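Notes from the 1:1 (GR / supervisor)

We went over the backlog. Supervisor wanted to see one worked example end to end before approving the batch request, so GR pasted a single chain during the call. The sequence is below; no edits were made to it. Supervisor asked that the structure be written out right there so they could see what the output format looks like.
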Amino acid sequence: MNIKNQFKEGLITNNPVLVQLIGMCATMAITTTLFNGVGMGLSVLIILTCCNVVVSAIRKIIPNEIRLAIFVVIIAGFVTIVDLLLQAYIPALSAALGVFIPLIVVNCIIIGRAEAFCQKNTIGASFFDGIFQGLGYTVVLIIMCVVRELLGSGRFGGGLIDVANGFRLTMDGTGAGIQLFPADLGASILTLPFGGFLTLGVLIAVMQYALKKSAQKKQLAEKAEKEGEE
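Structure output shown during the call:
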């Protein structure tokens, strides 16, 4: 188990959204405010980590023929728990995310990690995989929220930051956020569904470019090293 490599994969080289290109439906749909992005990201992180641990713990007794069905049942159980907790303690977030919380059951990120990683690795490795993959997903959501909200409406931290009653964090979704410039000066198209496609497309392009340049740099370094040895 190499925690450093798992951290790097989750955030950069194997990021679930920008590299694996999965879980993009909710990514584009709910990233209109920081409140939504943080809430959705943490929900997926918790569910993914719990599912990873359970799948890894019982991987040796899961019949291969019905493993996907068992994965879905495990995921559905944790999704239900998180959904009910949100309804009970953070109803504003539950209402804002709507159907996208129950849809985590079929989120390719969670099923994919169970299939590709957890059924082949230990509980410890699966735990950290869930943390780092979930963190990578959350970071992308937050970046998209900040970009769309800031450039689209001139605001930062909508639903999460309350400045009317003193600068504080709020979990009831009523925080107006920080208005950095007038909303009518923003590119309002970014707050619309098309803005989600546009923002995500740009982020994917930037990530792919960065990975390509990194790979080229690594190849040149290896080539120079070989020439030096000769």
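Supervisor's comment: The radius of gyration is 20 Å.
Batch request approved.
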